[in-house]
Amino acid sequence: MAGRLDGKVVAVTEVGEEGTEGRTYGGLWAQAAAREGARIVIGDRELSRAASVAERIGATGREAVAVALDVTSEESAAAFAETAIARFGAIDVLLNTAHLWFDVRRDDQSATYLRQVIDYNGIGMWIVGSAAAAHMMRRGRGKIINLSSIGAWVQSPRYAEIAGATGKLPNFAYALSKVFDNGLTRFMAGTLGRFGVTVNAIAPGIVLSEGTVRQLTAAERAAWVERNALRRILDVGDTVGAMLFLASADSDAMTGQVLVVDGGHVMLG
């Protein structure tokens, strides 16, 4: 049976933390795309992490190549795109999954750190998106899928707690970076549509990952469950279906959208 992505080349910008056995957005999305017939190019700050997921994919009989990638560097992003094109001839789908979450410093409320997070989570998405978009525009087709978060909408109680404890305004670093990502998705979509390129985003809710366990206390995770229509914390794998929909021909007429995959948290308000 033909896969939904047979013959496509899918580039992924990060597979995430060590010790997760590929169970991150980038890792699971790359493996899911490979199962659907795609050839995969994986970039990561740590080449060993990209290589580990590429080997996992290779063991299934699919093709995957690992590349060192710094999403904050235009030169690195250009080399990433050029590697994909040289190896497989094209980039059909870009999965823009690189983001700081596992290692977000919640205790750093400085302007300097706000700039660092937006640089990586936001401007980095623009840098790699630009490298892929230049190729897609020349071909007259392509799909870009950005990783956002419901953090762009949800007002965390800890913001007021930080303000009360410090007498200062929090920097909202992670949340603001995801607001950036949502806006970037819309502007990219509006610009690239005439060139046959669609741009959408996926905004997961709280998922049970090593990053979540590190960032949120047990009490905070329990509170998330109570504010969730499905009354559970999602798994990273719960986002795979949305990614495959956006990466496949099923979504060819859809662009500029942010799909919320959160078990009903934002819906409940």
Short description:
The chain is of the alpha/beta class. It is 46% helix and 14% strand.
Task: Give descriptors for this structure.
7 strands, seven-stranded parallel β-sheet, 269 residues, Rossmann fold, globular, 46% helix, alpha/beta
The computed structural class is alpha/beta
Number of domains: 1
Number of helices: 10
Q: What is the name of the CATH superfamily?
A: NAD(P)-binding Rossmann-like Domain
The rounded Rg comes to 18 Å
How many strands? 7
Helices and strands in order:
Layout: E1 9-12, H1 25-35, E2 39-44, H2 47-58, E3 64-68, H3 74-88, E4 93-96, H4 111-139, E5 142-147, H5 157-166, H6 173-192, E6 197-204, H7 210-215, H8 218-226, H9 240-247, E7 258-261, H10 265-268
Parallel strand pairs: 1-2, 1-4, 2-3, 4-5, 5-6, 6-7
Helix pairs in contact: 3-4, 4-6
